[in-house]
Specification:
The complex is a heterodimer. Chain A is of the alpha+beta class. Chain A has 2 domains: 65 residues, 2-Layer Sandwich (VC0802-like), CATH 3.30.2130.10; 63 residues, ACT domain (Alpha-Beta Plaits), CATH 3.30.70.260. In chain A, 30% of the residues lie in helices and 40% in strands. In chain A, strand 6 and strand 7 form a beta hairpin. Chain A is elongated, with a radius of gyration of 16 Å. Helices cover 31% and strands 25% of the residues of chain B. Chain B has 11 helices and 23 strands. In chain B, the strands form 5 sheets. In chain B, strands 3, 4, 5, 6, 7, 8, 9, 10, 11, 12, 13, 14 and 15 form a 13-stranded mixed sheet that branches. A 4-stranded mixed sheet of chain B has the order 20-19-18-23. Chain B has a two-stranded antiparallel ribbon with strand order 1-2. The longest helix of chain B is centred in the first third of the chain and has 22 residues. Chain B is globular. Classes of the chains: A alpha+beta, B alpha/beta. Chains A and B meet through strand 1, strand 3 and strand 4 of A and helix 11 and strand 20 of B.
């Protein structure tokens, strides 16, 4: 799946400005996470309106970047994430991850940003876990 | 090898120094007699013309600065009667200190010679067509290269600046072979010529570029895009104009026309004369200028003088490209830092030179922060990668400067600009 990330200064009001801009342009956020350092944050979002999001962000002077991320489908129960991480082991380097709202009951969706998507899918498949790009 | 005045351009060092001393002694005597403003400075320093017995004695003379020229504006530095002056040129006065320089016929003649040496070094012959797109008028660029090209026997296209479409039309229709303009305009012309397809119809072989700071990266870009060899030229209105120094085909520094200008390097803080090879402020003495005679003029350009013999056969010492301005120099943790050095690192590392330096003093130690705007290619969705890029830039700056800055990558257009020009340095240390 494709995710768009946005560079945001770590200052009051900056995140509001971005979310407002996205709302004005009818971009619905299906999932998001914010990675932060002292000076800046990186907002990552998953949306069906990816092209619109990238366009309005770039036009308004934001740094926006589209990245392929891994979506892992798993059971919504204790130990599911542990199972995924165990499958990754020391083979897959995870930069960040966040959860995803699922409309299917009993199903949990996770977004993973890993170094090697293909290899990650392979190790998960070997562990009986469903993952797609 | 081609020289315009081979005898003097390849004269032995001893011969050159003999010429310099003779001219210097005569010049100091003439200035002492004719220029009241400078005579007062010499008297205050307790030095008389007859004290100049060797070239080293030059250091006894007082400096001249842009402030002096402002004080003496407009006629106070005249070295010849006005009836003998035939022309003026002027600086843009953007810093609020307009300089008016006067020229006698002899001054124009010698200035033309200096520029002709540059044109011939760039391959100019009577078969060449030189397109001069430096401004004509008060600015020295157009006048200097025009005279130099004419003296070298080339045919001159006196285009002056602007009107890119017309520039390219003349360049193509008249088969211009040598281009004279600012390096940034050369790049603009190149891009336009490529876009419009005119590039394939051009006959350019070389270009003489100056009047603004440019980097080796810009040189490579100009040379690749136009398919020419790009030569640097140096000068300033106070010292006639372009042609104080020029590059030869070795492209390893600019030969200073030492039979007309004596160059010194001084420490901008202590004013002490530094040996060749040391980095410092260039101080120039014009030994035969009549209308506007400058003795020990502080250029504020920071550079290095290289006295080693050049493969081109010229014996005149070479100056490096100005590495910065002494008035821009920052002293951070005791180390001299020029904003232009930061700029060089950014360009080398693939960043746009949009940056801001912030200095402060915390616990008696200077803090040194550099904010740099990223473009979309440099942005990453992971904090780790952005942090790694900051570290990489800091390391490259440390290699260049000798001290470690803290680099902060920021979003585009977040560095404040006043009237379109970025504010490069915020020094909070001055506040207390």
């Amino acid at each position: 799946m494709k995710q768009v990330s946005v560079f945001i200064e770590n200052r009051a009001g900056k995140l509001a400005a971005v979310t407002e801009l996205l709302a004005e342009n009818k971009v619905n956020l299906k999932a998001l996470s914010i990675g932060d350092s002292v000076e800046y944050g990186i907002l990552r979002i998953v949306t069906d309106e990816l092209d619109v999001a990238v366009k309005v962000l770039s036009e308004n002077g934001y740094l926006a970047k589209v990245t392929d991320v891994l979506v892992v489908k798993t059971e919504d129960k204790v130990g599911s994430l542990a199972k995924i991480m165990a499958a990754f082991g020391d083979k897959i380097d995870v930069a960040y991850a966040y959860a995803f709202a699922s409309s299917e009951p009993g199903v949990a969706l996770m977004v993973f940003r890993v170094g090697d998507n293909e290899k990650a899918i392979e190790v998960l498949r070997a562990a009986g876990i469903h993952a797609t790009l | 090898m081609n020289y315009y005045q081979p005898e003097i351009e390849t004269a032995s060092r001893a011969e050159l120094q003999k010429i310099q001393l003779e001219k210097l002694q005569k010049q100091v005597a003439r200035v002492y007699q004719n220029v009241e403003y400078y005579r007062a400075k010499m008297d205050a320093a307790g030095v008389k013309p007859e004290d100049i017995k060797t070239l080293e004695d030059l250091s006894k003379l007082p400096f001249l600065s842009k402030d002096d020229l402002r004080d003496a504006y407009p006629f106070g530095m005249l070295g010849a009667p006005l009836k003998d002056c035939v022309r003026i040129q002027s600086t843009s006065g953007t810093t609020g200190k307009r300089v008016i320089a006067f020229y006698t016929q002899n001054d124009l003649n010698l200035w033309g010679d200096c520029c002709a040496r540059a044109v011939v070094a760039a391959g100019g012959t009577n078969l060449d067509v030189v397109q001069v797109c430096y401004g004509y008028g008060l600015f020295t660029g157009g006048q200097g290269l025009d005279m130099g090209s004419t003296k070298a026997g080339c045919m001159v296209l006196p285009m002056s600046s602007g009107n890119t479409e017309r520039q390219l039309q003349f360049m193509r229709d008249l088969n211009a072979t040598i281009l004279c303009c600012t390096p940034s305009y050369a790049l603009y012309l190149a891009d336009t010529a490529i876009e419009t397809g005119v590039i394939d119809q051009l006959k350019l072989k070389s270009g003489i570029f100056g009047a603004e700071a440019w980097t080796e990266e810009m040189r490579k870009a100009i040379e690749a895009k136009l398919g020419i060899k790009a030569y640097d030229i140096y000068g300033l209105t106070e010292l006639s104009g372009p042609g104080v120094a020029f590059e030869c085909s070795e492209q390893g520094g600019m030969h200073i026309n030492e039979d007309h200008f004596i160059a010194e390097i001084v420490d901008p803080k202590t004013d002490a004369v530094l040996p060749y090879g040391e980095r410092g402020e260039l101080v120039l003495t014009a030994v035969d200028k009549e209308g506007f005679p400058m003795l020990r003029y502080r250029t504020h350009d920071i550079c290095v003088l290289n006295p080693t013999p050049c493969k081109c056969g010229r014996t005149h010492i070479r100056m490096s490209k100005p590495l910065g301005r002494s008035d821009d120099m920052l002293i951070i943790r005791g180390v001299n830092v020029f904003p232009s050095q930061i700029e060089t690192v950014l360009i080398e590392q693939g960043y746009m030179p949009n940056y801001r330096i912030e200095l402060d003093r915390v616990n008696n130690t200077d803090t040194f922060d550099v904010y740099v705007e990223m473009d979309p290619e440099q942005f990453s969705d992971t904090v780790k990668v952005v942090a790694a890029k900051e570290k990489e830039l800091a390391q490259a700056m440390k290699t260049m400067l000798g001290i470690n800055p803290k680099v902060h990558l920021v979003a585009p257009k977040t560095i404040e600009r006043s009237e379109g020009k970025a504010v490069r340095v915020i020094d909070k240390r001055k506040l207390h």
